[in-house]
Amino acid sequence: MNIDKLLHDVQGLLGRTLNNTQSPEEKDLFRIAAAALMYISETGRIHSFEDYLQLGKQDPPYAVASFKTREEADVWLKKHPEPPHGAHVLIADEYHLVAHRRESDIRSLIKLPVIDYYLADLARSGTTTPVDSFSTREEADAWLQNQPEPPRNASVLVAGKYHVAIYHRLINHRALYPLPVTTQEPERNAGTGDRAGTP
């Protein structure tokens, strides 16, 4: 993907569509869309946008930062010179929305069930054969953190229950989530500890 050419082509399409649009309201909407592309370019965010475009359907929803505790996230938000209003951050692997009112400088983090919807979609698409099995969550977490190349939505069993190992690539964060439902039975050899299938 040549991101510069892509943005140029999209801007051309917006311009042609704008010229053929009769409605003043729609013309304003196309101008705003064109301005959004210019903003991406003029603020040096082209490569970040390119990374965002390359997120696949199976990738987790975008997040701009991750924190172990709410306290860490609150400190980050308080000290941030310009909080990214509307962005998602992870707190203990749960999604939160960054809200910032410029006029009053009110800042807050609002927990959202983003990960629940994502995990439900993964579960509906069917679990894959587990790459490994662990007796405890601590063992599974240690395995995930020690992977040289993080697995992409790999299924593992933790105490007999399906979990998915997720890699938030753009912030280099690894997380393990229990799936809300299971669609297949654990394979007989999943509990043998055989690492042969480990990515």
TrEMBL record:
Designated name of the protein: Head protein
Native species: Archangium minus
